[in-house]
Amino acid sequence: MGASCKRATQLCRCGFLGHYSGRCRCTPDQVLHYRSKISGPLLDRIDIHIEVPAVPTEDLARARSGDSSGTIRGRVAQARARMIARQGKENARLITREIDNDCVPDAKGATLLKQAIGKLGLSARGYHRILMVARTIADLAGVDRISEAQVAEAIQYRRIDRA
Fold first, then answer.
1. How far apart are CA 105 and CA 107, in angstroms?
2. So what's the pLDDT on residue 39?
3. What is the share, in percent, of the chain residues with pLDDT greater than 70?
4. 53-76 tens-digit pLDDT
5. Residue 42: CA atoms inside 13 Å, Cβ hemisphere, count?
6. 7 falls in which pLDDT band (50, 70, 90)?
7. What is the CA radius of gyration of the chain?
8. Residue 99 CB contacts under 8 Å (≥ 6 apart), including other chains
């Protein structure tokens, strides 16, 4: 997703908003002003917007749970193979017409996406980014049809700029 457009940013001027230490002293107005410096059209070109919180030092040494890198690599390879078989390229390389053809959600997913457009004020580009990400989530799950669950997850990945 978005191989040509990757970006990381702080959530506020000091960089500690949401940090477990409570070190951020930015006011809500300062946070809003800081975030407003990033243009909407630029944010629309980024597929996924997520907050990655700082990890407390003591948690770094704990045993990790979850899938191994090899297992995840295998799932990604299978998802990529699904994309290539379906459309001849990765989802991130789809143009608008292809997104409209290959990233069609089921009825509940379409309804949810319409609601999100209204509530979040999404642009046409943001709408298509959500569909592309939902298609990728479905590919990772190994399913052919984009469901409401995949649309909901994709919407969640665009919420930082709408906070």
1. 7
2. 67
3. 88
4. 777 878 877 877 788 899 999 999
5. 9
6. very low
7. 18
8. 128, 131, 132, 135
The position carrying tokens 């379906």 is: 86
pTM of the predicted structure, to 2 decimals: 0.75
Q: What are phi and psi of 11, to 5 degrees?
A: -85, -15
Token look-up 């040494």 returns: 61
d(CA 142, CA 37): 39
Instruction: Report the distance separating Cα 39 and Cα 18, nearest Å.
Output: 22
CB 92 within 8 A of CB 76: no
At residue 8, the pLDDT reads 54
DSSP class of 56: P
Place of tokens 């959500």: 130
